[in-house]
Amino acid sequence: MLYRNMKHFWSGLLSLLFLFGATVARAEYGLNMTEGVTPLSRNIYDLHMTIFYICCAIAVVVFGVMFWSIIRHRKSRGVVAAQFHHNTTAEVLWTAVPMLILILMAIPATKSLILIESTGDADMTIKITGYQWRWHYEYIEEEFGFFSSLAPESNAARQLKSGIDPNEIENYLLEVDNPVVVPVGQKIRFMTTAADVIHSWWVPALGWKRDSIPGFINESWAIIEEEGTYRGQCAELCGRDHAFMPIVLKAVSEDEYYDWVGEMMVLTMDAEAGADRDWTLDELLEKGEKVYSTFCVACHQVDGQGIPGAFKPLVGSPITTGPVEDHISTVMNGVPGTAMAAFGSQLTDVDLAAVITYERNAWGNKSGDVVQPSAITSIR
Amino acid sequence: MSDAVTHEHHHDAHDHKPTGMGRWLFSTNHKDIGTMYLVFALIMFFVGGAMALVVRAELFQPGLQYVDPQFFNSMTTMHALIMIFGVVMPAGVGLANWMVPMMIGAPDMALPRMNNMSFWILPFAFAMLLGTFFMEGGAPAGGWTMYPPLITQLGDGFPFLIFTVHFLGISSIMGAINIIATVFNMRAPGMGFMQLPLFVWTWIITAFLLIASMPVLAGAVTMLLTDKYFGTSFFIAAGGGDPVMFQHIFWFFGHPEVYILILPAFGIVSQIIPTFARKPLFGYVSMVYATAAIAFLSFFVWAHHMFTVGMPLAGELFFMYATMSIAVPTGVKIFNWIATMWRGAMTFETPMLFALAFVFLFSIGGFSGLMLGITPADFQYHDTYFVVAHFHYVLVTGAIFALMAGAYFWLPKWTGHMYDEKLGKIHFWISVISVNVLFFPQHFVGLAGMPRRIPDYSVQFTEWNMISSVGGFVFGLSQLLFLWVVIKCVRGGREATEEVWEGARGLEWTLPSPPPFHTFTTPPQVDEAVAHS
């Protein structure tokens, strides 16, 4: 009987190993934590491996004794059970020895933690704000900022039953429209916060994640030592599209970084211009569609039908076909207690005017209303 | 006992049972209420399991194949709520209802009518919770931890979620009071506290944890309710509130809750291993103190669930040290179980197999738990599949395996029939292999960077997720075998003796199998040899 059980066990284990071997041969994938590219990430990786090896060593001893007992002390071998039921020496030992091991683990862990929390003396600061479902980056010293959303190719492929094979998309779900660019070799302070619900900013190569929480600002830091593109994701459940707000961090040389900063500042000035002129319906529709597909499409969908029971439709809705003032107010201030965010602080006057115009004229909505950026400016 | 089929006729005249639906609806009998708890838990096990299979089906490959992300989030959220509050907790209470009076020589629970109410709240509470699927806005999708502000975005289901939690809390607290009242007042003469079987001890300690922690959860969810509907700002930053405060309050409940789920499992395993090793439990006294120490420490480690919210260094250090220290009493328990096996004369019937798998696999969950407790490393592990793997090792191969072990161990006592040992062993081996295929690869994808609670993932995680899903479906479907073993055992089978197992010790094994409807109406006299196994 027991022999048969052991046979079950070994054949099970063998088939597992076979499965394991087959997949190893087939594809590249991670088994372990990344070492990362910062002093902190290497420190954390080393700590992780140290604890892991200690756990393995303990496991070998404890499970070794257990399996020895299972093999030797079985009734079928004709043994007679001993009747001892305590042993003070053993009990003191197996309380004291684990304590010592834990203290040994706690020492490097404490050192790491002190290092992680040393956020002072930063060369530059980036403020990260989590939104449902994109990230906003603000370069505090250079005074510009931008949103970073899931790249359109991934976004198309990730729709339910899209028919697009994710394997065909480069960096599926790990690509964005606007990556965050940083210089190597500088101490960067990351300040994380959120506008709506709690998110968590995580790039494994930096060695940590930090929650971004409305009303709080958390600090973390990194010195990136190697140029490259590092990818990550939101790590705290933040609603329907939690899986679809990736992070792409590009670490470049200092020269390249300052070139990029220059370009971004020009772009920022361009975006702010145009608020005081009158736009044509076509211009607004073209711009509005772009804004809509970045900020609104996740909930209200491409066809404006929303998701029944979860997100309201815009086609023929009292907001998009009713008074313009109510429409503007809903988009700018959001609807408290729902996933409808206040976009007044996220979008420029031009973007707001464009997207509202778009919503009033797209799908079956044919109001012909044109909302000018100046109308938004006057409300602010 | 002779003929299994007609056993009812053999009991004395006092042993008449009520008949029809009334027997169950108005029951004040600890055995019937225990049975209802266990049947309810088993039904919910399949409901919650079906949700897990939806999750695993969607995660079988990248891309969204079957469900909308919002529904996916409802699946993970409801799976957790159902498995925790609808399966592991009721199953634990069901076992306590059946076994505690029989183990301490009491005729019934101390508060039988309250016992009835604490069970009958459950089906209504879960009907309400499952009803949210049909409401505007769908079922809860913000995670079982209900973190604001996300959870307040839930639609019409929100107040129903809150009231479900309140009802579950009331039910648990009543159950806990009942167990404490029973053990403190109704032990047979000669049975002191240090003669109690370990299962009873773990349940007393669990009961105190329940009474201390459930009201805290009730307070937290009530604040959520007033934040959404009555204009308060406990957790709303814009109104001067603090969303992190909810997490502190929640986990002040949540960590003791973890031990509410696992301590009765420790108790079950502590009954089973000595029985099949034919040797007394090693270090009974240190087992009791270790259990109490774990329970006490569980109130000082809550923030390790939220290291990444940004606490002061001193706070992070405190919670790291406190968390690591729990490894000491937990280690003591593992060592005691192994020392109990040492130089015993073991046999490997299904309950023993599940108990041994528990010791082995729970320890793996313990190791990953220790790793997660190291704050700097947790900054990488947190909210990844590494965490998912960890808590499924301690809850599925931990709590659920122990409950399975307990069910096999006591089924012959409850029904008077031996279950089908061959089927039981097949169930064990399929379960133990598939559960590792299911959860072990999740360590790898977690370390490699896959966040938890996502319906879709980038393609480098595909292989391990496929393997995990295959394991999930095999594990899930193999539990139908367990259902069949139970049904078969209730219907008939080889007759069980009073003692059932060769090495069984304790008052419950002095009763006939199945025990008459009312037992120990005159208290038994307890001597040291009978008291605990």
Identify the notable features of this structure and list them briefly:
heterodimer, A: 380 residues, Helix Hairpins, Immunoglobulin-like, Cytochrome Bc1 Complex, Chain D, domain 2, 3 domains, five-stranded mixed beta sheet, 11 helices, 10 strands, elongated, disordered N terminus, B: 533 residues, Cytochrome C Oxidase, Chain A
Would you kindly provide a written description of the structure presented here, covering whatever features stand out?
The complex is a heterodimer of chains A (380) and B (533). The model of chain A is unreliable at 1-9 and 21-28 (pLDDT under 50). The longest helix of chain A has 34 residues, at 39-72. Chain A has 3 domains: 30-116, Helix Hairpins (Orthogonal Bundle), CATH 1.10.287.90; 124-272, Immunoglobulin-like, CATH 2.60.40; 278-379, Cytochrome Bc1 Complex, Chain D, domain 2. In chain A, strand 6 (199-203) and strand 7 form a beta hairpin. In chain A, helix 2 packs antiparallel against helix 3 and helix 6 packs across helix 10. Chain A contains 11 helices and 10 strands. Chain A has 380 residues and is of the alpha+beta class. Chain A is 44% helix and 16% strand. The termini of chain A are far apart. Chain A has a 5-stranded mixed sheet. In chain A, strands 4-10-9-6-7 form a 5-stranded mixed sheet. The radius of gyration of chain A is 28 Å and the shape is elongated. Chain B is an all-alpha fold. Chain B has one domain: Cytochrome c oxidase-like, subunit I domain (Cytochrome C Oxidase, Chain A, Up-down Bundle). Chain B has helices spanning 20-25, 30-58, 69-104, 112-131, 157-185, 198-229, 243-277, 284-297, 313-325, 327-341, 350-373, 375-381, 385-415, 421-448, 462-491, 528-531. The longest helix of chain B has 36 residues, at 69-104. Residues 1-13 of chain B have low confidence and may be disordered. Chains A and B meet through helix 1, helix 2, helix 3, strand 7 and strand 9 of A and helix 3, helix 7, helix 8, helix 9 and helix 10 of B.
